[in-house]
Amino acid sequence: MEPQRKLCTALLVLSALTLTGADQAWKNKQYPEWTEDDAKEVMTNSPWAKTVVATPVKPEGREQQPGRHRGGIGIGGVGIGRSRSGGTEPASPAQPATLTLRWESALPMREAELKARDIGAPDVGDDYYAIAVYGIPRGAVSDDSKERQDELKKQAVLKRDGKKDLRPTRVDILLRESGPLVVYLFAKSTEFTWRDHGITFEAQISRLKFSQAFSTDDMTFHGKLEL
């Protein structure tokens, strides 16, 4: 029984190592060697791409009756409010939403998007760290006004242990048929290093709030930190 038990253990360890290697095959390749599947994995499940469930938060102030919004009217149980700029306020999702966060400024992400022919990826300049949020419900962001951009700026932050929080320099809102895409841009004048070990991105979009940690220990490619 003992030899058989050792054999089974060895096979399990070998199987686990094989699966791990297969799941992260792109790590051992140069960019030109990536397959389209490698690229899609980098874009959806990698150190630079994480899935997070955003949970709804209650609106500030007094509880409102269903179908009624301050400054607006209720029609058939659906509230229509007016923003201060005169536009229509976005509907606030009351259900959790699954979002995908991507470090668009990271070279591996840009290379993966090229390989996967992702024409919908935002164009990000070299002066910023950029985190894009995909999968936002349509009703969460209905306009790309400066007022809305400023609101999102105030509700987002990058956090590191023992260092000052970093607020976005700019927020871009891209309204698309598939749903809104929000891109947070942070000035590269603030340096990140592998010694930070962890970076946490916290944000709120409309009434959807979320937080996601990223490990700088993992965000390296062939020995270089890529953000």
The span between the termini is 51 Å
Order of helices and strands: HHEEEEHEHEEEEEEE
User: What's the total count of β strands?
Assistant: 12
The strands making up the biggest β-sheet line up spatially as: 6-9-10-1-4-5-8-7
Query: What are the low-pLDDT stretches, counting only 5+ consecutive residues below 50?
Result: 5-22, 62-88
Which percent band covers the strand fraction? 25-35%
Mean pLDDT figure:
79
What would a concise description of this structure say?
Helices cover 22% and strands 28% of the residues. By secondary structure, it is an alpha+beta fold.
Architecture overview:
The chain is an alpha+beta fold and 227 residues long. It has one domain. 22% of the residues lie in helices and 28% in strands. It contains 4 helices and 12 strands. It has helices at residues 2-23, 36-44, 107-115, 146-154; strands at residues 49-56, 73-75, 78-80, 97-103, 128-134, 156-159, 170-174, 181-187, 198-205, 208-215, 220-221, 224-225. The chain has an 8-stranded antiparallel β-sheet. The longest helix is centred in the N-terminal third of the chain and has 22 residues, at 2-23. The radius of gyration is 21 Å and the shape is globular. It starts with a helix and ends with a strand.
Fold blueprint:
Layout: H1 2-23, H2 36-44, E1 49-56, E2 73-75, E3 78-80, E4 97-103, H3 107-115, E5 128-134, H4 146-154, E6 156-159, E7 170-174, E8 181-187, E9 198-205, E10 208-215, E11 220-221, E12 224-225
Antiparallel strand pairs: 1-4, 1-10, 2-3, 4-5, 5-8, 6-9, 7-8, 9-10, 11-12
Tag the structure with descriptive keywords.
227 residues; alpha+beta; eight-stranded antiparallel beta sheet; two-stranded antiparallel ribbon; 4 helices; 12 strands; 22% helix
